[in-house]
């Protein structure tokens, strides 16, 4: 509609003229200006400002108390004590208290700073003209001249001994950080390449905890074993069984396709690592007719009659085989360790 139908309205050009910002010919876009500043209650009422000040101070004090509680949690709560917290369930009281207190401490600092800025700090908007960021040509020339003069006076170009030793010092000083990183944990050494299996170690049934005998393993059955001397009560049991877990399958010797697998077996009893070579899940699903084992996590499938090679799924390597035999007592025993590392991602880790 035109201004004739709305006499109470003012055209944009008239509004700009009222603010003294009429568009010029070389600048067709008029400066819209800033809206009128509206004071907050804290700007005009000192009692309201004092209330906001007390709120900010309370949040900061609460943050300090939460930090003290965070430190005290290390002393007050044992790491192995758990409690039931609805709706989370059973959780370590130490981890829960550390998370709550640290979260509260950080939240109160942030909330206090935001409340301080929104209620007590100045909120008057100001406009400033933009200026070129780069320096003027004469300033740049002066800086370059001063730099060249400083380099010449320092003798950096002609005093090669100082220059080269300085470069050496700057190159070596970051190595101190490498030394500090050494304290982050123990070195891996050859722990990824070896397991507890060794020549003469008997195969212990994971269910009965008794040595396995050839007659205990029926054709088509799947049995799980661990090395002799390893106990579930050992402190490092989980770490060691994660590498040494073994699955035992008995296959008719004439059905074994891989010559090395047959040579490393005993009367058709073959022993393969139970740890999937994809992401380390324990393999436990065996199909008797096809001699295939399936990893339940991502469906990697291995053919135990053909060297446990991968026939389906994301696993990139066959399951390592353990060479086995029978000792003087008639129990199954290992004839050495795995000849290749077990588990996932080893080849990427080197």
List keywords for this structure.
350 residues, alpha+beta, Rieske Iron-sulfur Protein, 2 domains, five-stranded antiparallel sheet, 10 helices, elongated, disordered N terminus
Folded structure, characterized:
With 350 residues, the chain is of the alpha+beta class. The protein has 2 domains: 11-125, no CATH class; 203-349, Rieske [2Fe-2S] iron-sulphur domain (Rieske Iron-sulfur Protein, 3-layer Sandwich), CATH 2.102.10.10. The chain is 35% helix and 14% strand. The protein has 10 helices and 13 strands. The protein has helices at residues 12-18, 41-44, 46-76, 93-119, 137-154, 160-172, 175-181, 237-244, 259-263, 346-349, and strands at 82-85, 89-92, 203-205, 222-227, 246-250, 269-273, 285-287, 292-294, 301-303, 309-312, 321-322, 324-326, 332-334. The strands form 4 sheets. A 5-stranded antiparallel sheet has the order 3-4-5-6-11. A 4-stranded antiparallel sheet has the order 7-8-9-10, with no helix packed on it. A hairpin with a 5-residue loop joins strand 9 (301-303) and strand 10. Helix 3 (46-76) runs antiparallel to helix 4. The longest helix is centred in the N-terminal third of the chain and has 31 residues, at 46-76. The model is unreliable at 1-12 (pLDDT under 50). Belongs to the Rieske iron-sulfur protein family. It is a multi-pass membrane protein.
